[in-house]
Amino acid sequence: MKWPLLSTIVLFGCSNALLRFPCAQLVVDRLDPLVTPGQVPSPHLHQIVGGNSFNASMDPAKDMPGESTCTTCQFSEDFSNYWTAVLYFKARNGTYKRVPQIPNSGFNGVNAGMTIYYMQDGLYDFQQTSKVTAFKPGFRMFIGDVNARTPEEVARFRQLTYTCLQSIDTRDPQITDFPNQPCPAGIMTALRFPTCWDGKNLDSPDHMQHMAYPESGTFETKGPCPATHPVRMGQLFYEVVWDTRQFNNKADWPADGSQPFVWSFGDTTGYGNHADYVFGWKDDALQRALDSPCYINCATLKTQDTAAMNKCSKSKTVSEPIDGWLTTLPGGMTAES
Length: 337
What we know:
By secondary structure, this protein is mostly beta strands. The chain is built from 5 helices and 16 strands. The strands form 4 sheets. The chain has a 5-stranded antiparallel sheet with strand order 1-7-14-10-9, with no helix packed on it. It is globular. Residues 1-16 and 122-129 have low confidence and may be disordered.
C-alpha cells in the first residue's frame, strides 16, 4: 500500500525549519514504561534511545533530565526517550535472527539507534497567529496499533511507513506494509506523530487521545488544528534504518514467496508498526530550538560528539537471548499475520 506524502529528502532541500539529529542505541530490552509501566518483562522487545534514566516505571512526576547522567542523542540537553519495536528475520527453517541497525545518511559512526526530527516548518495555522509549542515536562505519547494487520486498520495513523532503500539516501516510494522484495541498502521505517495537543493533558489512557491530526491537509501543510486540540506542537518523527542486506538471498525466504521480516511482537504484515515517546528535554531547550531556524547545527543547543553518544548506554534489565538464531521471538512469541 503506497502512501502519498512529501518526502524527507525534499524537506531537506526546501527548509531549515526542523531539527534532525541522531541518537545512538541506549539498550535493547523487554521494557515499556508507557504501555505496561512497572511490568518486567514487557510483552515484546524494544530498542530504546535517549537518556539513561530509562526504566520499567518512569514516574511522570520525576525530573527526567535530573534523573539521567547521559544521553545517546546528539543534542546533550535532550534526555527524552524514544523507542520502537525490534525487527527480526524469519528464515525458511522457522528460526529468527535480529536485524541490526545502521546509521542514517550523514551520521556515520553512530551506534545503531535512530534519527529524530522535530519539525517547525509548515506547522502554523492559516492566519500565522500561533507559534509551534514544545512539549511539556511529563508529556508522553504513542502512535500506531500493535494489533493492526490490515491497510484499513493502519490508515487512521496517516504516516507510519517503510522505504525499500536502493541507497542510504532513498526516501521514496513509502509504503505502509513490509516490502515484498529484497532491498539493496536495507529497510527504513518512519514514524510520524500527530501535531495538535488538547492543551491540558500530558497523557491519556491510550496515550493518543490527548493528541490529534490537523483538520485538513498532511503534516507538511498548514491545516488548522481541531477546536478540541487547539495547541500546535512541533511534529515529532523517527527514522530507523534496518540493515536487511545479509537477508537478501531469496533462497532463505519462506517457500511460499512471502516476505520474511517480523516485528518482535509477531507481526509479519508491517501494519502493526508503532512508537513511544517520553519527553525529557532540559529546561526550555526544545522551545528555544523550535523558535529558531535550526537544522543539524543548532546554535541554541548544546551538542556532543559521536563518541560521547555511543558511550552512553545501560545494561539490560531482562536477561534473555535476543541475538543469534532463536526458535521463538523474545518472550516466546511467534510470527503471525
